[in-house]
Amino acid sequence: MTKKRARSPSPSSSSPSDDDDETGGGFLSLAGFSAGGPGSAAGRWGRAVDAAGNVLAPWCDGKPHCGDGIPTPPTPPLVSLHNEVLRFCDLVCPTPDERVARASVVDDLRRVLTGIWPGCRVAVFGSELTGLCLPSSDLDIACLDVTGKDSVGPLPLRRFAEELRLAGLVDQLEVVESAKVPIVKLVHARTQIAADVNFNVPDGLTTGWMMRDFLTAHPPLRPLLLVLKHFLMQRALNETYPSGGVGSFLLQMMVLSFLQHRQHRHRHDRAALRRAKGGDAAAAADDNADDDGGDDDDNADDDDDGGSDAYSDFNLGSLLLEFLDLYGRKLNYDGVGISVRGGGSYFRKSSRSWANANPSRGPPRPGLLCVENPLEPTVDVGRNAFNVANVRRAFGHAHMVLVEALVNQQAHYHHATHYGPDV
User: Fold this and answer.
1) How far, in whole angstroms, is CA 128 from its chain's centroid?
2) How far apart are the C-alpha atoms of 388 and 400, rounded to whole Å?
3) How many C-beta atoms lie closer than 10 Å to residue 336's C-beta?
4) Which residue of 15, 30, 207, 210 is 20 to 30 Å from 379, comparing CA positions?
5) Cα 30–chain centre separation
6) Residue 361 φ then ψ, to 5°
């Protein structure tokens, strides 16, 4: 059996304070990254210490710049943060053994499903399809083209659950018929990998392929999402149900919107620079290329987000800080909604009656995050994230923590570059 990474323990409260959570007031903790076997990422990375002998996070490289010492050789703090984000993504990426284990779960479930419905089609979606899975991520599986007498209502869920019991493939099993998308939740006995299976609902595949296109158009999207998913998970703020946190799709839309608007600014800055150099024609071309990313809704049918040249010299540390600053301190949650269609735009929540003040939905909650579903523009993806105030507070606190650490490291970097590391 493939040895799984230890899962991060959940905090005891779904709304932790900024100072008193399992990260100790920091950004990411070491929870879930204890040393594992040779097949695990934790075992592959081992343990690193700083000059004082303090144990460092496994995404640090062991150089003093990861701790409190003077960088040797000197490394700009934002470059260090950029490199640590990349190493973190390598760490949480499934190992070859884990990929084999996850594939074996899909194979076992496919055999059961095709044994019941020989003409069905079994497809994986969610984080497995987009490549955004963490070590703790469940498998999301859709069983499509299910027909016959056991294909109506809850019958396929019950039939599948019964066959799983008879086959002895699962340790835990639950049929959730009351959910918006009814599913069978299970834990595979041999690998202890969890999976959710739905029937005749292809929406997850459509969403997954859309996200793959966005990930290709915006290279920083994947590393930022992996870091932020783990950040929210360690604070128990990553699940919409039951904690009212920011789920995966909502987070994807938030990061995508942030990158889209940053891309707009990059184009405008580039056009301004060309104007300053006398290149009015080229600057006008840049402006025209950005016209589809304005602040109105009339551009909603064009999902082409070309122009990834805006990321040719991006720094992931800088992007992470800007994201935390936007959603932790600057965004007007009360009045502004987010759309990622047509290159990305903001809109007034009141223009769509999305001001979270509908009497049929209970007391007014104007501070909720409002995000349009690009596949169903009449749907607000953020409407059920009622705990977003704590998410916002966590982002704001993380921004403060990282800025303070970077300022301290900048002082060490300045000292080392001017006087040498040994002075």
Assistant:
1) 13
2) 18
3) 14
4) 15
5) 19
6) -100, 10
Mean model confidence pLDDT for the chain: 79
For Cα atoms 266, 268, 270, give the angle at the middle one, nearest 5 degrees: 70
HSE toward the beta carbon, residue 74, CA cutoff 13 A:
15
Q: Which is more confidently placed, 131 or 1? A: 131
Do β-strands 336-339 and 370-371 pair in parallel, antiparallel, or remain unpaired? Answer: parallel
Tokens for 298, please give them.
């009339």
E-only strand ranges, 180-306: 183-188, 194-199
248, 250, 229, 256: which is closest to 92 by C-alpha? 229
| Residue 139 CA from chain centroid, whole number | 16
Terminal C-alpha separation, the chain: 52
Cα–Cα distance measured from residue 332 to residue 199, given in angstroms and rounded to the nearest whole number: 39
Q: How confident is the model at residue 259 (pLDDT cuts 50, 70, 90)?
A: very high
| 403: helix, strand or coil | helix
**DSSP secondary structure string, 84-114?**
HHHHHHHHHSPPHHHHHHHHHHHHHHHHHHH
Other residues' Cβ atoms within 10 Å of the Cβ of residue 163: 14
Q: Give the distance from CA 9 to its chain's centroid.
A: 19
Two tokens at 300? 């909603």
CB 201 within 8 A of CB 181: yes
CA distances from 393 to 251, 270, 326, 328 (A): 15, 33, 12, 6
Please, where are the H alpha helices in 277-367?
280-289, 316-325
Q: Is the peptide bond before 363 cis (omega within 30 degrees of 0)?
A: no
Per DSSP, the three-state class of 27 is coil
Question: What band does 36 get if pLDDT is binned at 50, 70 and 90?
Answer: very low
pLDDT at 158 over 70: yes
Which residue, 377, 392, 281, 282, is CA-closest to 338?
Answer: 377
Q: Which residues, other chains included, contact 195 with Cβ-Cβ below 8 Å and sequence gap of 6+?
A: 105, 109, 138, 139, 140, 141, 185, 186, 187, 188
Which residues on neighbouring strands pair with residue 165, listed in sequence order? Answer: none
